[in-house]
Amino acid sequence: MNNYIDDTNLNNLATLKDIERLCIEAIKYHFASVYVSPYYIKLAKELLKNSTVEVGTVVGFPLGFQTKEAKVYEAIDAVGKGADEIDMVINLQALKNKDYEYVKEEIEEIRDAIDGKVLKVIIESNLLTQKEIVKMTEICNETFVNFIKTGTGFNGDVKLEDVKLIKKHKNDILEIKASGGIRSMKQVEQLVEAGALRIGTSKGGDIMENKKCNCDENCECGCQDGKECTCDENCDCGCQDGKECTCKEEK
Questions:
Q1: Which of 1, 122, 137, 203 is the most exposed place for a label (fewest CB within 10 A)?
Q2: Interior CA angle at 40 toward 37 and 44, to 5°?
Q3: Could you tell me which of 141, 137, 202, 200 has the C-alpha nearest to residue 164?
Q4: How far is CA 123 from each of CA 126, 186, 203, rounded to the nearest angstrom?
């Protein structure tokens, strides 16, 4: 499953060392790509120059309400810095207004500006109705982009039913990238079975190592509420070492 994974660090506080770790991890597990902010494209490209791992970045991230012209500039700039793949957020305001021509034109303008690089269109399926998901799938079919992507991860976890719905309505060219709250190999396998060809996650290494957080209901890291575990290597609870969570004792 390693070649399905786009290992991602779009944390706005990510440091040079964080990106170095991301790239080392991607090389180790032969991931499809890493996704970094535009600021780190050149660094990632240099770190991965002797590997098969691609470098991806984002455009119009995470809200998507920038103008077409701004997004096109972002995309051209990213490719100029070495990005192999672009994940663009659609203009959700235009979609909600049923201004489908604007949505389509924006995608086409970015597609035409990136010199044949891979384009993935983020639709934020958790914010859409089923009809809107189908409509966006149809638009992605019509614009001949490489991927339709479920979300940024800022608006909840990816839903299997959304991936299945997209698969039902996509053409043979369009592929699916699932993203949002993917933390386990079981989730990856379920999403791939449902139709996803790429998996966007910030937990690529942990997934490959099948690490499990042992935090309990008294832990404040959030994982027990379906949120991401925020414990790191500096946490004393022990979950990062596969030990029992001691957050309860610390409280």
A1: 1
A2: 115
A3: 137
A4: 9, 24, 22
| Matching residue, tokens 């207004």 | 97
Give the confidence band of 218 by pLDDT, cuts at 50, 70, 90. Answer: low
Give me the residue spans of the domains in the chain.
2-209, 212-251
Q: What is the pTM of this model?
A: 0.85
From the list 120, 170, 177, 203, the catalytic residue is 177
Gyration radius of the chain over CA positions: 18
Query: In a 3-state reduction of DSSP, which class is residue 7?
Result: strand
Residue 212: predicted pLDDT: 57
Of the segments 146-155, 203-212, 217-226, which one has the largest average pLDDT value? 146-155
Told to judge if 71 belongs to the known catalytic residues of this protein, a careful annotator would answer: no
Nearest CA to 97 among 59, 135, 144? 135
As a whole number, mean pLDDT of residues 134-148 equals 98
29-88 pLDDT per residue, tens? 999 999 999 999 999 999 999 999 999 999 999 999 999 999 999 999 999 999 999 999
pLDDT at 236 over 60: no
Coil, helix or strand for 55? Answer: strand
Is the C-alpha dihedral spanning 219, 221, 226, 232 positive or negative?
Answer: negative
149 is catalytic: yes
Could you tell me which CATH number the domain at 2-209 has? 3.20.20.70
Indicate which residue of 87, 157, 162, 206 is catalytic: 87
Q: Which run of H or of E encompasses 89?
A: strand 85-89
